[in-house]
Design a protein that fits this description.
It is built from 2 helices and 20 strands. It has 295 residues and is mainly beta. The strands form 6 sheets. Strands 10, 11, 12, 16, 17, 18 and 19 form a 7-stranded antiparallel sheet that branches. A 4-stranded antiparallel sheet has the order 3-4-5-6, with helices on one face.
Length: 295
């Protein structure tokens, strides 16, 4: 929202500055109420660059005059005037014609703020013709959360299994994501908004054609994530000279969002994060058992 300032005399100086292409140094006047409902927005210009346009209630195209919902001007537009504020015809320079080096930095509300100028005729209250600081709207919380999600990174890991070195047909083979962390992952902040991934489960493809299965989020050896091979890998391609199945694992996280430590609930944001598949060779041997009977 614009912070409107009183400056009847300053208006004349800026008009002259705009006409002559010069800069005029003017002290910041006292604050006053803003014209009701008017805002400044950015729209694409004919050259493809963004430009600033003042819009008021009833505008139909981001810059045309309006005044009450039926798109009928409430003032007489003459000269430079492009929109109405009540019965006053107005135009604006956003940013103002003043050289940026002369902007009153001591009153600047933020580094992103732009010094603007509005001229209206008539100006019966002396509050419509003004210089003011305009702060362009920043990204929404949803946009910041989406940025934060894009900054989440899953940890690197390798496919680990037990029995070490070689699985055995008919015996449980334990899988885990070796070197992955069991704790939460946190992405870099997007203006105070962060995405946090909480470990949920593993997806495991043992590589023998049996399909993918899920199991608890295992990062160390244990029986929580196991699979039983039913045939050896003797007919599979060799890895490091040994016929092996190509097993794959990926990590799955539940994602939440926080803004300065406060939990955000925003519909439509991604609520899960899955790592890329990581593959590893698993040789599977079939052990023959010889049974003998005593005489």
């Amino acid at each position: 929202m614009l912070t409107w300032l009183r400056t009847r005399t300053a208006a004349v100086l800026v008009v002259l500055a705009a006409m002559l292409g010069g800069a005029v140094v003017v002290a910041a006047p006292a604050a006053a109420d803003p014209p009701p409902g008017c805002t400044v927005v950015q729209v694409p210009g004919p050259d493809g660059k963004l430009k600033f346009v003042v819009t008021c209630p009833g505008d139909d195209d981001g810059g045309s005059p309006g005044g009450g919902g039926d798109n009928t001007p409430t003032c007489t537009l003459t000269g430079l005037a492009t929109y109405c504020v009540g019965t006053s015809a107005c135009w604006a320079n956003v940013p103002s014609a003043l050289d940026p080096s002369t902007w009153p930095e001591e009153t600047r509300p933020s580094p992103e703020a732009i010094y603007t100028f509005q001229y209206c005729d008539p100006d019966p209250t002396g509050t419509l013709t003004t210089w003011s600081w305009y702060e362009p709207p920043g990204p929404s919380l949803q946009e910041l959360a989406q940025r934060a999600y894009g900054r989440l990174a899953t940890p690197a890991f390798t496919v680990a299994f037990n029995p070490p070195g070689e699985a055995i047909v008919g015996l449980p083979t334990w899988f885990w994501a070796d070197a992955a962390t069991a704790g939460e992952i946190v992405g870099d902040s997007a203006l105070g908004v962060v995405a946090i991934g909480a470990p949920d489960h593993l997806e495991v493809d043992p590589g023998d054609g049996s399909g993918t299965f899920t199991c608890p989020f295992a990062v160390t050896s244990g029986s929580d994530c196991s699979h039983e091979y039913t045939r050896s890998s003797a007919r599979e391609p060799a890895a490091h000279g040994v016929p092996s199945y190509t097993a794959r694992i990926r990590l799955v996280y539940d994602v939440r969002y926080e803004n300065a430590g406060t939990r955000l609930t925003i519909p439509g944001l991604p609520d899960t994060l899955t790592s890329p598949w990581v593959a590893g060779a698993v040789p599977v041997a079939e052990v023959q058992t010889l049974v003998t009977s005593g005489s």
